[in-house]
């Protein structure tokens, strides 16, 4: 099976085309929070060189709100245009290790915390303070951070090529939201 995978949950995004878990095309790019323009440049290049594929897989987060929405929308659009399915997969599965922890900055002195073993989450992703998250770590199991310096973790970004290996666990292409959206109310106009 040939799979186009898009992963944009952190500050380094990636797009890959794989066939039977072997990479054919793999591209990484800067993906600053709130800006997704590089995704479309890379997608254009990959699509121009990809030929046919059977599935669009997209990382669903947690991560940058704007980047996730852009990448999921792109996956849906490619899916519709090519008349193939689009499916989503939690971005924390995009690391190459048999067992690991992933932490990411969730702002307001919180981090998201995930424990992955054999390509599956061992528990749902949690929002924790860094202090509580540190008590959940197990000595000898690697800890990756999606970009922030947290818990002495190795900063490593989820990767589209690795994410594609877990296609069997994919579900709906919908973003993982751990918090309700932050909406600033407009101020009433002075009379």
Task: Give a short summary of the structure.
With 191 residues, this protein is α/β, with parallel strands linked by helices. The protein is built from four helices and eleven strands, in the order βββαβαβββββαββα. Strands 6, 7, 8, 9, 10 and 11 form a six-stranded mixed beta sheet that branches. The chain has a five-stranded mixed beta sheet with strand order 3-2-1-4-5.
CATH topology of the largest domain: Nucleotidyltransferase, domain 5
Helix proportion: 10-25%
Helix/strand order: EEEHEHEEEEEHEEH
Total count of strands: 11
| Radius of gyration computed on alpha carbons | 17 Å
Task: Characterise this structure.
- With 191 residues, this protein is of the alpha/beta class.
- The protein has two domains: 103 residues, 2-Layer Sandwich (Nucleotidyltransferase, domain 5); 61 residues, no CATH class.
- Helices cover 22% and strands 31% of the residues.
- The chain has four helices and eleven strands, in the order E-E-E-H-E-H-E-E-E-E-E-H-E-E-H.
- Strands 6, 7, 8, 9, 10 and 11 form a six-stranded mixed beta sheet that branches.
- A hairpin with a 2-residue loop joins strand 2 and strand 3.
- The chain is globular and about 50 Å long.
- The mean pLDDT is 93.
């Amino acid at each position: 099976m040939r799979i186009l995978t898009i992963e944009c949950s952190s500050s380094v995004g990636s797009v890959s085309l794989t066939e039977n878990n072997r990479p054919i095309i793999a591209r990484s790019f800067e993906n600053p929070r709130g800006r997704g323009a590089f995704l479309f440049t890379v997608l254009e290049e990959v699509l121009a060189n990809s030929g046919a594929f059977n599935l669009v897989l997209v990382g669903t987060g947690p991560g940058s709100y704007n980047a996730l929405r852009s990448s999921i929308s792109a996956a849906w659009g490619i899916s519709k245009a090519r008349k193939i399915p689009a499916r989503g997969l939690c971005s924390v599965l995009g690391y190459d290790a048999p067992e690991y922890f992933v932490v990411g900055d969730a702002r307001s002195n919180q981090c998201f915390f995930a424990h992955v073993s054999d390509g599956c989450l061992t528990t749902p992703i949690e929002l924790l303070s860094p202090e509580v998250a540190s008590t959940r770590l197990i000595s000898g199991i690697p800890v990756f951070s999606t970009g922030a310096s947290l818990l002495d973790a190795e900063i490593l970004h989820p990767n589209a090529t690795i994410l594609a290996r877990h296609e069997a666990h994919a579900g709906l292409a919908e973003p993982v939201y751990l918090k309700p959206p932050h909406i600033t109310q407009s101020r009433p106009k002075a009379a």
